[in-house]
Amino acid sequence: MDVLAEATKRRAGGHPVISMAVGQPSHPAPQAALQAAREALAEGRIGYTNALGTARLKSALAWHYRNRHGLEIDPARIAVTTGSSAGFNLAFLSLFDAGDAVAIARPGYPAYRNILGALGLKVVEVPVSAETHFTLTPESLEAAQRENDVTLKGVLLASPANPTGTVTGRDGLKALADYCAAHSIAFISDEIYHGLTFASEEASALELTDEAIVINSFSKYYCMTGWRIGWMVLPERLVRPIERVAQSLYISPPELSQIAATAALGAAEELDKVKASYAANRDLLLDRLPKIGLAPASPMDGAFYAYLDVSRFTNDSMGFAKRMLTEINVAATPGLDFDPLEGHRTLRVSYAGSQAEIAEAVERIAAWLK
Ligand SMILES: Cc1ncc(COP(=O)(O)O)c(C=O)c1O
């Protein structure tokens, strides 16, 4: 947040800042989504919807699972949420009681830790490394329970992951789903970077079990961060409890955004072109970064992040990020946000920007580090 605030201030002051700090696409929402929203606005009346979303969006999402994964999902198991962020609140509130232990990967998305902590849950950060392809495994969950002297009530895994870009393949997901089923642990699968996998298979936990709580969003592949629409696929028994909490917390997700999101599900042609531009950025980073001493610390399988090992240059990634911003106007996120223990040696860069911007940023960094 500090780096972002400084980047915004510098940009306002006329400095040519390139931000690789934020995890959002530079591309706007797909044309079909914008057109659907314009038509809805011309009609004028935007109101509340059902607490778990419109029937149209839920059946379009069921179609999405048929189309992408060959799965038949009953639309009644789908809950539309105000971004996936609301989905985490709803899932945690309905699955857990205060004091319950929930495992997440370290490094991982910082909001997990913050939301779990705010709800009075015990956060069990499980270190991931090259040994386990930067993902959670039944063995690492076992070890974490022993070391922390806890019995897990939940496991939350993102694939593709932020900040590491790691994709957990079908076998890895199945091992986790089976382990959770055998130990009565709720398995929450964050699939918000689905659609953005470059070097691996992309399995949904729904292909392996009906018991997973799957969380997804229109923010990333669909380029709709500001529209604040996400969704969950739930085991049937959780639908009613989640509906009751959702009704009280949010009343409903925004109707205009639901209309736009329904149209976005049919925009794969446009969105796959955006994905291709990330793939070109990824190729450039994979080629250039190791040559300038910034090797990726984890495989860049998916999402649009490179998690870089900066230990050749510094032991203080925060100071490094600040200097990079003030000296060459390139913003990146210090690893401490994602990993409070080891993140002083890492930096996350997002490659969701335009190809010209990413290329320029890499050249500035290369010249700076010489
Ligand atoms: C792994 C992960 N999950 C969830 C989110 C939240 O996204 P949203 O609330 O926009 O759906 C993010 C945002 O960056 C993320 O990186």
Description of the molecule:
The chain has 370 residues and is an alpha/beta fold. It folds into two domains: 123 residues, Aspartate Aminotransferase, domain 1 (Alpha-Beta Complex); 222 residues, 3-Layer(aba) Sandwich (Aspartate Aminotransferase, domain 2). Helix content is 44%, strand content 14%. The strands form three sheets. The protein has a seven-stranded mixed sheet, sandwiched between helices. A three-stranded antiparallel sheet has the order 9-12-11. The chain has a two-stranded parallel sheet with strand order 1-10. β5, α7 and β6 form a beta-alpha-beta unit. α1 packs parallel to α11, α4 crosses α5 and α10 packs parallel to α12. The longest helix has 24 residues. It is globular, with a radius of gyration of 20 Å. The two termini are 28 Å apart. The protein binds pyridoxal-5'-phosphate. The site of pyridoxal-5'-phosphate has 13 residues, from α4.
Spell out the key features of this protein.
globular; 370 residues; three-stranded antiparallel β-sheet; Aspartate Aminotransferase, domain 1; 12 strands; alpha/beta; Aspartate Aminotransferase, domain 2; binds pyridoxal-5'-phosphate; single chain
